[in-house]
Amino acid sequence: MLRYLASRVLSVVPTLFVVSVVVFALQHMLPGDAATALAGDVLDPKIIAQIREEYHLDQPVVVQYGLWLGGVLHGDLGQSLRNHIGVTELIAQKLPATALLSAMAMAWALLIGVPAGIVAALRKGGWLDYAANVAGLAGLSVPPFWLGLMLILFISAKLGLLPASGYVSPLQDPKAALESLLMPSFVLGMSVAAVMMRHTRSAMLATMAADYIRTARAKGLYERLVVLRHGLRNALVPLITMAALQTGQLLAGAVLTEQVFTIPGFGRLIVDAVYTRDYAVVQGVVLVTACIYVTLNLAADVAYGVVDPRIRR
């Protein structure tokens, strides 16, 4: 197990390198010019040339990438071209909100999707199975921005139960932070809950048809123990993989939800950076996102060994 994890850690470096090269190249292929965007309404060629020189935009793309990579190896992700703030500082400001939003969304997905999938598998062909599948299809089909707007209309505007928008840090007011994230996390987690429900149902159907489940029942074990200890535990391996992948997608896909609920998070940061050709911010955000994906995959590998002792051996 340790040898396998060591090999996975070693594979992180070339993965991150390829990601950084591809993103850096794609940024420079986009139409528009960063120096002109920074100059704004001032179209003086001298000022634009000064901006190019100051931020090394007059250098070849390979040289620009080499300068950026050298800074990264020394722990410096560069400086934002637009607001002259360090990229590391910007990410440190925006990432906690999106991370907390994604964690709460995944909590909603697990609390709703996994139990619904188990019930649907145990009641295959029944009305509970039918209802769970209809709810899952609805969760995948309903656009998150529409669901968010409907929740704002009814829960905030009509009932006044939760704030319609904004974000409060848990360090300032834990209760207000929870209230500000309940609706957006629910909206973000619904599509993931539908995915988790469908995968839980499929995994449980395959597991509950196995011979060892029949043997456990023949021994007279309670059905609850058969389902939870023997069935669900063996179905967890594909669910762990799906949960890790979906958590990474939540971090990267929270843009619309953050826009609807006016949350100053990771998604809005990268959207604004792409619009303004802020190369350093885009590159830094993508690199951090890739690191999060890799970390989640490593965590899933460790969880495999905890759930299934055969993998440890």
Which labels suit this protein?
313 residues; mainly alpha; MetI-like fold; 2 domains; 78% helix; 0% strand
Short account of what is shown:
This protein has 15 helices and no strands.
The helical percent reads over 70%
Compute the CA-based radius of gyration: 24 Å
Order of helices and strands: HHHHHHHHHHHHHHH
**What's the total helix number?**
15
Cα shape:
globular
Q: How many independent structural domains?
A: 2
Give a count of the beta strands, DSSP E runs of length 2 or more: 0
Q: Which CATH class of the largest domain?
A: Mainly Alpha
| Through-space gap between termini | 7 Å
How confident is the prediction overall: mean pLDDT? 80
Low-confidence parts = none
β-sheet strand percentage? under 5%
CATH topology group of the largest domain:
MetI-like fold
How do the helices and strands line up, and which of them pair or pack?
Blueprint: H1 2-10, H2 12-29, H3 34-39, H4 45-54, H5 61-73, H6 87-122, H7 127-141, H8 144-158, H9 174-208, H10 211-218, H11 223-252, H12 255-260, H13 266-275, H14 279-307, H15 309-312
Report on this model:
The chain is built from 15 helices and no strands. The model has no long low-confidence stretch (mean pLDDT 80). It has two domains: 2-73, no CATH class; 89-312, MetI-like fold. It has 313 residues and is mostly helical. α2 (12-29) runs antiparallel to α14 (279-307). The protein has helices at residues 2-10, 12-29, 34-39, 45-54, 61-73, 87-122, 127-141, 144-158, 174-208, 211-218, 223-252, 255-260, 266-275, 279-307, 309-312. The N and C termini lie close together (7 Å).
